[in-house]
Design brief:
heterodimer; A: alpha+beta; five-stranded mixed sheet; B: mainly alpha; 6 helices; disordered N terminus
């Protein structure tokens, strides 16, 4: 009887085993299909890489040694040695370096050994290793961000050849010693982990193989249930059966989750290397490799930016493992242990990530590219950002606002500011500061903060007036007298001057330089508010605003970007170049997809613009901008203050650069600041770090430079009046100021004047 | 969302079945793994507020340094390379090189004229006309510039008539 039961049991067991085995096989084939359908030829979505302008080096360029080494540091160049591309050493007033190779949008350049010598704040000489002079050379452009898909994953794909052997070996030694031999899971490792963790009373080791981790990262969400672990294990096995070890390892290198940056999930060692160290993966040293491997176990638990002690402790344990497995020698181990973490500190990281500028890049590209395509195809985007200018602008805002708050007893953090810097001849946006906290994604005041522009509108009024009346000159007399403008929907509008005092009859040059409200309103009404509104629309390439009379004093709202577009016409002597942030887009293979070429269009007669520009220069020499550090340096600009001192503006330019500054209150309250006291100091601080080239205003052939009295507009010189130099038509007859020598007038005019 | 193929890495797939016994054995062992403690689930941490270093000292008035212009050799080299690219049938690169030169020296009228002539070559007379005007506005008294601009204008007119 027992024998029959035994046989019967055996049969049942056999049947169950067969059925179980078949079910298991079916399940495995199902998993295999799942894996191959999504994993095989795993198409990673490769985000677009976005580059700033490369730093151009030429003799005479305004660049200090410190600025240069700062840029090299941020490119991850190794300091203190010159032993290959990506290293540099300071030698007195010179820097010796080997630039990394780079494939620019207009041609590739190999690695170049260089010696750059500085004198003060300028480059004095550039030589090759052999001592030949170099006229012009550019450093590789810094990566300033990536456009990644909406699921937030960001990565920089690295090929097997770019991954250091030491990293692979360390990874295996720490995470999966048996990787080369197991079949997807490692029972010994699991048992060992179980034992260690039980003894430690917590999680010390993981028992998962690299393959299991890959599956977990790749497919499955974070549920830690038994069925999930089973599935993970089975998938790991299938992966191992299907793919080579080297492929799996490379997939792991590119896939593993390794950090978080706000909304951006950092995946893969390639991006982690950039994110934590600003260096390519191939350039990492032992202690840096150790840190990255250490972080994998818990990217936030071991976050080197926030939990430095834990990260350091674990990194050192990894270094010990590296020594134990003879991946590094004792000397390297000792040195590496002594190094600190080496991750870029918060402040510097904030400088490398420019959210305000990136927003603009995205919106420019959105017009021409499908967002999904852009974020997944590994494009390379070359932009107009100048990191040197951007850093200076951020410093100008941070430093000046703090100083103003202290001086005026305002709350700390009460002020906000925005800066837009462009190259007005080309329309290229060099820098955008969207707010005081430049590194974080707050409200972008530069692009989205539309505020009343106050007196910034006045050059448009005067330009329209010059265009409307060919006889109008800078010496023409206009009335700075009270005016009452009827308002159909309420009480009449009665504007006032800033100091409440009408100045009577004034020359145009003075009305604009001193920003006299009454004169501007009277002139604007004579020209016609509709005409001014129309012109403003044309210059902005937008529909004209409502022609309310208050438009003449800047009641209309614009963003700093729009103001930059507007003033680009003046700084560009009548030529408008549409603002742009992207120069070229390439596909992953380097083929050019799109170029956004230099485009310019005449929108105003240079002869009219140059008269306005002359007045804007006078703003700086003796008008509302004369408090600037650059008052005598040939720059041009306009101050602007809105009602109740809520908005302080300054728009200023030199021959090559235009910078718009806005300063306001976080809560839109009054700051008590004017354009001169609030925005101009920020502009000064910015320009003090850049090269300033005077604006040259060419005088047309039929014009002459004459001296006229600033108060009355009559001919005058220093002996009898307060002269200001203005370009005037050669045939214009002007009376000399009372008390001035009649010889100021030429003979022909004098004779003619007898007959007037 | 479109997912397209990157160049690398691609996983090849020879289907080799290793020992099924090992597979089964492993699965059995799974039972023993039921109690394996797992690593903490990662959730993104809130970022610390970013701060930038603040200076509280007013900037010194800048020294009155003479602005130094870049050596004319720079634009010569770029112009020559641009001409070579254009002659070699790559107008896109020729344009990019001139744009690079203009980026360094936006005030040089002859660079804008070079660019205008390139656009004549590529069949864009409208752009050529604007660029020539810009060059004139940058150097109104310059006769050489005026001459070249006038020649460009003539070719623009000719192109417009034939076009």
């Amino acid at each position: 009887m027992r024998r029959r039961i035994f046989v019967w049991c055996l049969r049942i067991t056999l049947a169950l085993a067969v059925v179980g085995g078949l079910a298991l096989c079916a399940w495995l084939f199902h998993l295999d299909r799942v894996i191959t359908s999504t994993f095989e030829g795993r198409r990673w979505s490769i985000p677009a890489q976005v580059y700033a302008q490369p730093l151009e080096l030429f003799v005479g360029r305004r660049l200090s040694l410190d600025q240069f080494t700062f840029e090299l540091d941020r490119l991850g160049y190794g300091a203190g040695r010159v032993d290959g591309p990506g290293t540099y050493r300071t030698e007195g007033q010179a820097v010796r370096t080997v630039l990394r190779p780079f494939a620019f949008a207009d041609g590739a350049r190999g690695a170049v050994p260089l010696r750059v010598r500085f004198e003060g704040t300028r480059i004095a000489a550039i030589d090759t290793a052999r001592g030949d002079e170099i006229e012009l050379i550019r450093v590789e452009p810094p990566l300033i961000g990536s456009i990644f898909p909406s699921h937030g994953e960001d990565r920089l794909i690295v090929q097997p050849g770019e991954t250091p052997e030491l990293l692979l070996e360390t990874l295996k030694a720490v995470e999966d010693r048996n990787f080369d031999r197991h079949l997807g899971f490692d029972p010994k490792a699991m048992l060992r982990a179980l034992w260690v963790n039980l003894r430690a009373g917590g999680v010390e080791q993981g028992g998962s193989t690299l393959t299991q981790q890959l599956v977990k990262s790749y497919y499955l969400d974070n549920r830690r249930t038994i069925p999930r672990k089973l599935k993970e294990l089975a998938m790991a096995v299938v992966l191992e059966l299907r793919f080579e070890k080297a492929d799996l390892l490379n997939a792991y290198i590119n896939e593993i989750y390794i950090g978080q940056d706000g909304a951006r999930a950092i995946h893969g060692f390639g991006l982690a290397s950039q994110y934590y160290f600003a260096k390519p993966l191939a350039d990492l040293d032992a202690h840096e490799i150790a840190l990255l491997v250490a972080v994998i176990r818990g990217p936030s638990y071991y976050n080197p930016l926030r939990n430095t002690e834990r990260a350091l402790a674990r990194r050192n344990r990894v270094l010990d493992t590296m020594l134990q497995f003879e991946l590094i020698d004792a000397a390297t181990h000792g040195r590496a242990r002594g190094r600190d973490l080496g991750v870029l500190r918060t402040g510097r990281r904030a400088g490398r990530y420019y959210p305000a500028f990136m927003d603009l890049v995205r919106s420019q590209l959105d017009r021409d590219y499908d967002a999904g395509l852009l974020a997944t195809n590994g494009f390379r985007v070359f932009t107009t950002l100048s990191p040197v200018v951007q850093e200076s602008a951020e410093r100008a805002v941070a430093g000046t606002l703090a100083r103003i708050e202290a001086e005026r007893d305002l709350d700390e953090g009460a002020l906000q500011a925005a800066i837009v810097v462009t190259s007005p001849q080309t329309g290229e946006v060099q820098a955008i500061v969207g707010g005081r906290d430049a590194g974080s994604r707050g409200f972008n005041y530069a692009v989205n903060g539309r505020r009343p522009i106050g007196s910034l509108i006045k050059p448009v009024v005067y330009l329209t007036a010059f265009e409307a009346d060919p006889n109008l000159t800078l010496a023409s007399i206009i009335d700075d007298v009270p005016v009452r403008v009827p308002n159909p929907s309420g009480p009449p509008w009665m504007p006032r001057n800033f100091d409440g005092r009408p100045q009577g009859e004034v020359p145009v040059i003075r009305a604009l330089a001193d920003s006299l409200n009454l004169a501007t309103v009277n002139l604007g009404l004579a020209v016609g508010v509709e005409r001014v509104a129309q012109r403003l629309g044309e210059l902005l390439d937008a529909p004209p605003p409502e022609p309310f009379p208050s438009l003449l004093l800047g009641a209309g709202e614009l963003s700093p970007m729009e103001v930059a577009q507007l003033y680009g016409t003046f700084a560009g002597t009548g030529f408008a170049a549409p603002l742009k942030t992207v120069i070229a887009v390439e596909d992953r293979g380097g083929a050019r997809l799109d170029r956004y070429p230099l485009v310019t269009r005449q929108v105003a007669d240079p002869r009219d613009v140059l008269q306005v520009n002359h007045a804007l220069k006078t703003v700086m020499t003796r008008g509302t901008g004369k408090g600037s550090l650059y008052a005598g340096r040939g720059v041009a600009g306009k101050t602007g203050t809105s009602d109740d001192f809520r908005d302080a503006w300054f728009a200023g330019f030199d021959a090559n650069l235009l910078a718009i500054v806005w300063v306001g209150h976080v809560d839109n309250e009054s700051t008590g600041l004017t354009g001169s006291s609030g925005a101009l100091p920020v502009w000064d601080a910015l320009m003090s770090e850049l090269a300033v080239t005077p604006v040259t205003i060419p005088v047309p052939n039929d014009y002459l430079l004459r001296e006229i009295d600033f108060a009355t507009g009559e001919l005058a010189d220093a002996s009898c009046g307060d002269p200001v130099t203005v370009p005037l038509p050669s045939d214009l007859r002007l009376p000399p100021k009372a008390g001035c020598p009649v010889t100021l007038q030429n003979l022909g005019d004098r004779i003619r004047s007898w007959f007037d | 969302m479109v997912r397209l193929m990157p160049a690398v890495p691609r996983l090849r797939a020879p289907l080799r079945v290793r020992s099924p016994a090992a597979l089964l054995a492993g699965l059995v062992l799974l039972g023993g793994c039921a109690g394996t403690p797992v690593a903490p689930v990662e959730t993104p941490p809130p970022l610390p507020p970013e701060t930038t270093p603040e200076e509280t000292v007013a900037p010194e008035p800048p020294p009155m340094a003479e602005p130094v212009r870049p050596s004319p050799n720079i634009s010569i080299a770029l112009r020559e390379e641009s001409a070579r690219a254009a002659a070699g049938g790559d107008p896109g690169r020729a344009i990019a090189l001139l744009e690079r030169a203009i980026r360094i020296e936006p005030g040089r009228a002859d660079l804008w004229l070079d660019l205008a002539e390139l656009y004549l070559q590529t069949g864009d007379p409208a752009q050529a006309e604007q660029l020539a005007r810009k060059a004139r506005a940058l150097a109104p008294g310059d006769e050489a510039v005026a001459e070249r601009a006038a020649r460009i204008d003539a070719r623009v007119r000719a192109l417009r008539q034939t076009g």
